[in-house]
Amino acid sequence: MTDAREVYLKGVRLSYPHLWEKQKANEDAKPKFSAAFLIDPTTKVGKRNIKLVKAAIAEAETQKWKKTGFKYKQDRVCFFDGNDVTDDEGTIKDGYEDMMVIKGSNERPLDLRNRNKSRAEKDSDPFYGGCYVEAILRLYGTEAGGSKGVFASLELVRFLEKGDPFGAPPVDDSILDDYDDIEDDEDDDDDMLG
Q: What are phi and psi of 5, to 5 degrees?
């Protein structure tokens, strides 16, 4: 890559993917395609990813302000500690504990790829929160919004492999053992619904 602000993340977990339809980050924001990526700082690839992100942040700062090392408000930087991502009760969100997180968005449609590098299609969407992906993001400094910040433009997401989905686990099929079998008899439809 020729732009030092651009990072190619390998083996990150996808979270909050809005890859096919735009979403608003908040009430006043423009709708964008977006996602968060979880980086494990204990792995070799995670350490590499973090080093690349920090270098891209420094380059984005230098290009925008001719110096680096700023302290940002929590909502003014795209790279942060996953332990700070909590629900209303203060519990760290599923999958975020001890991870580093980078978020990216784009108003333009994203380049979405399958594992074999072919273009992903919405009707066979391989992406979900918890799967492993590669991603390309371009970081930039801005003062839009009233104070300095560094954000990331999300350019490409490529599916790598399955991972445990975030959130509630799927229903175990054994739960169906507690329910009665239902025969396919159209005449009984009215009786079942009362």
A: -85, -5
Residue 37 CB contacts under 8 Å (≥ 6 apart), including other chains: 9, 12, 13, 14, 15, 101, 102, 103, 104, 133, 135
Task: State the Cα–Cα distance between residues 125 and 21, nearest whole angstrom.
Answer: 12
β 111-113/132-142 pair status: unpaired
Name the pTM for this structure.
0.84
Closest Cα to residue 135, out of 120, 151, 155, 121?
155
Angle at 39 between CA 33 and CA 40, to 5 degrees: 160
pLDDT digits (tens, 9 = 90+) for 170-183: 555 555 565 655 55
pLDDT in tens, 30-83: 999 999 999 999 999 999 999 999 999 999 999 999 999 888 988 899 999 999
